[in-house]
Design goal:
About 55% of the residues lie in helices and about 5% in strands. The protein has 13 helices and three strands. Strands 1-2-3 form a three-stranded antiparallel β-sheet. Helix 11 (about 260-270) packs across helix 13 (about 290-295).
C-alpha cells in the first residue's frame, strides 16, 4: 500500500465512517501529507505499512525543531494516530507504530466565562417591548440553558423542541444528534415566542420549521447573533470579551461548579471525548437530565 492509495482510503474512512467536517478531514490529511513529505525530504524510502515508531519519533523531533507549538504538535499526533488506526482496521499493518507516541503537555487555557449575575445583566438588557426583543430573549435563554453552539442554535427546528419530554434534539458536529434537557426558563420564553411573535412573521419558503427567524422570515445568521450579544454587552456595561460561545462555556462551568457529573456535561455539550470537557474542572458525580434540572441556575 503506497502513500497515495492509503491517504485516499483514509479520506474515504473519515468522510463515510467518521462523518467529519471538510475542515477536519483536510486537517487530518494535511498531517499525513506532512509526514510523507518529511520522509521524502530525509530521503527515507518507506511505505505506510513499514513506518516504525523510531521514524515517527524522528518526525516529532523535526517539527519541534521547526518551532511548531504544543497544540499543533498534539493535533498532528492525533492525526497520525488516526491514520495508523485506520491502517490497522484495514489489516494493512499488524500493530500501530503511533500507539506509544506521547502528546505534549498543553497549557490549560480556560475560556471566558460569565457569572450568573452577568448572564442576568445581559438578558435583562433586552427590550421586550419589541418582537425582536422577545425573540432574542427566547434565543439567548435557549443558548445558555442548553449550552448550544451558535450554529446549533440558528439551525434549531420547531420539531426539535420536544415540549412534552422537556428535551431539545440538537444536530451537532459531524451531523451527530444529542438530546439536551430544556430548562424551564428557555421553555417558557420559547412558548411565548412561538405563540405571540413567530405567527406574525412572513415565513420564507424552506424556513417553515426553523425556530428562530429574522423579521423577513429567514433564518438567523451567526453574525446576527454575535451583533445582538455585542449590543446587549454594551447596554449592560460589561467589559469582558463575549461571543455566543461564551454562553456555552458559562453553561458548562455553572453546571460543574454546582456539582454536576462531568460525563453528563460531556453528553450535553456533545463532546466526543471527556478530556475536552475536563477544561471546566475535575469533578465527577451524578447523571444527565437530573444534572441539569438540579444544578443549572435557569432550571
Amino acid at each position: 500500500m503506497d502513500w497515495h492509495s492509503s491517504i485516499k482510503g483514509f479520506k474515504g474512512y473519515l468522510q463515510l465512517e467518521k462523518s467529519l467536517s471538510e475542515n477536519s478531514i483536510e486537517a487530518y490529511l494535511h498531517d499525513i501529507t506532512n509526514l510523507q513529505h518529511f520522509f521524502e525530504t530525509k530521503k527515507i524510502t518507506v511505505n505506510p505499512e513499514n513506518v516504525s515508531f523510531k521514524q515517527l519519533q524522528e518526525f516529532l523531533v523535526f517539527i519541534i525543531e521547526l518551532g511548531i507549538g504544543a497544540r499543533s504538535q498534539a493535533r498532528m499526533i492525533s492525526g497520525i494516530r488516526a491514520f495508523f488506526k485506520y491502517l490497522l482496521m484495514e489489516d494493512a499493518i499488524k500493530q500501530s507504530p503511533a500507539e506509544l507516541l506521547e502528546l505534549p503537555r498543553l497549557p490549560q487555557k480556560l475560556p471566558e466565562v460569565l457569572s450568573i449575575e452577568e448572564i442576568d445583566m445581559l438578558v435583562n438588557a433586552i427590550d421586550l417591548s419589541t418582537p425582536e426583543g422577545q425573540r432574542n430573549k427566547a434565543m439567548l435563554e435557549t443558548l445558555y440553558c442548553c449550552g448550544l453552539r451558535v450554529t446549533e442554535l440558528i439551525t434549531l427546528k420547531i420539531s426539535d423542541v420536544i415540549f412534552e419530554e422537556e428535551f431539545v434534539r440538537v444536530i451537532g458536529k459531524g451531523n451527530k444528534q444529542r438530546l439536551v434537557p430544556l430548562g424551564k426558563s428557555a421553555e417558557k420564553y420559547i412558548h411565548i415566542y412561538l405563540e405571540t411573535i413567530r405567527p406574525q412573521i412572513p415565513v420564507q419558503k424552506g424556513m417553515e420549521d426553523i425556530l428562530f427567524l429574522n423579521r423577513r422570515g429567514r433564518g438567523m445568521t451567526r453574525e446576527m447573533v454575535f451583533l445582538i450579544i455585542q449590543d446587549l454587552k454594551k447596554k449592560a456595561g460589561l467589559r469582558k470579551k463575549i461571543s455566543p460561545h461564551t454562553f456555552r462555556h458559562s453553561f458548562a462551568t455553572h453546571l460543574v461548579e454546582g456539582g454536576a457529573d462531568l460525563r453528563a456535561v460531556q453528553e450535553m455539550l456533545g463532546h466526543e471525548s471527556i478530556t475536552t470537557t475536563e477544561i471546566y474542572t475535575h469533578i465527577d458525580r451524578e447523571y444527565l437530565r437530573d444534572a441539569i434540572l438540579r444544578f443549572h441556575p435557569r432550571k
